[in-house]
Amino acid sequence: MAEANGSKTQAQPVADVEELTASRAVLYPLLWGFAGSFVLRTAVVLGLPDIIARAGPDETLTVKQIAAQLKSECVNELGLQRVLTALVNWQLFRCTKAEMSEEMQYGLKPVSKLLVTENNPHNQAPVVLFQTDPAALAPWQQLHRYVLYGESAWQSAHGKELWTCLNDNPELNKCFNACMASSTTIDLSVLVREYEGFKDIKTLVDVGGGTGKTLETIISSYPHIHGINYDLPHVITDAPTIPGIEHVAGSMFESVPSGDTIFMKRIMHDWSDESCLKILNNCQKALPEKGKVLIHDCVLQQSGGLPQIYDMLMMAHCDGGMERREEQWRKLLTTAGFSTINFIELLQEQWLIEAFK
């Protein structure tokens, strides 16, 4: 037994090598999970999905064929091959051997087709670009300050809240709006297909509706609805003219336009309970008797899954933002004066909450 400074050092138990190896196998993929994020960003920035898609449906291309279409005269083909190999191994791309050759040919799979930007209504590339932008990544370095001091991680990183940053930075604002519009497309396809309540709505107010993409999708299937797209002035500035939709600028913390139904898609999870109550109270004032609020958001389950990731994202990006369990939603809506509350599970961890006045 060794001694140092007059004290005895206890011998450490012999570690179980199998247990250590198994534990590291869990730890390391989490630690280096960012590698997948940045290989995705690399694929999008280089335009790899678009290059392959232009070759035709289900076509494949060699490294040399892809390299010839990159915007550089000195492409590192080995580097390109390594990126493509990683995308294949992570089940994002596919590859086959070319006929009469040992060269590998690379093609798209359904998941990588989501990253095609040309003629693709479900293009998810803007989501990749915003979430891997240096501005969006910096707050993750500050999560500990939220735990230790209750400080906003985004504000700790940037000196001001997310929404102020977007207002002050037009390029970041465009990147964010594109991300929000793209992340909406698949969700809305499910929502419009699964929720039959739209047929009875006359005026639908989309609070925090961005540039109007959500309402445009809903109204294309339910053209009898009059849509009011409500968001902050710097967002509405970029909103295009859309038939059947009125764009209104304002703050949901001050007032909400009147309508028989108020819709909020992934808005409430950005805010604390106190802030959400302010929004819901304004919704109460704007709704007629028997009017309703529709909240399209996560409902946290014990299994975690994607909503658990979203919860950490809210902690990083939003002051007080969080995903909520069913009982938390019920308490929030009941406190705001809503009577009948229905939880409708749509598909793949998507939920719609109906709350009636």
Number of domains: 2
Q: Briefly, what CATH class of the largest domain? A: Alpha Beta
Structural class: alpha/beta
Rg calc? 24 Å
CATH architecture of the largest domain: 3-Layer(aba) Sandwich
Full CATH superfamily name of the largest domain: Vaccinia Virus protein VP39
As a percent range, the share of strand residues is: 15-25%
- Poorly predicted spans: none
Give average pLDDT, whole number: 92
How would a textbook summarize the main sheet?
Answer: 7 strands, mixed
User: Biggest sheet: strands side by side, in what order?
Assistant: 8-7-6-9-10-12-11
Overall shape: it is globular
- Put simply, the count of helices is 17
CATH topology annotation of the largest domain: Rossmann fold
User: Count the strands?
Assistant: 12
Please bin the fraction of helical residues: 40-55%
**Terminal-residue CA separation:** 73 Å
Q: Which sequence of SSEs, written as H and E, runs from N to C? A: EEHHHEHHEEHHHHHHHEHEHEEHEHHEE
Provide structural commentary.
- This protein has 357 residues and is α/β, with parallel strands linked by helices.
- 45% of the residues lie in helices and 15% in strands.
- It has helices at 17-31, 34-46, 48-54, 63-67, 77-89, 110-113, 125-131, 134-137, 143-149, 153-158, 162-168, 170-194, 213-221, 233-236, 273-286, 306-317, 326-335; strands at residues 3-4, 7-8, 61-62, 93-97, 104-108, 203-207, 226-231, 245-249, 261-265, 292-297, 341-345, 351-356.
- It has a seven-stranded mixed sheet with strand order 8-7-6-9-10-12-11, sandwiched between helices.
- Helix 7 crosses helix 12.
- The chain is globular.
- The mean pLDDT is 92.
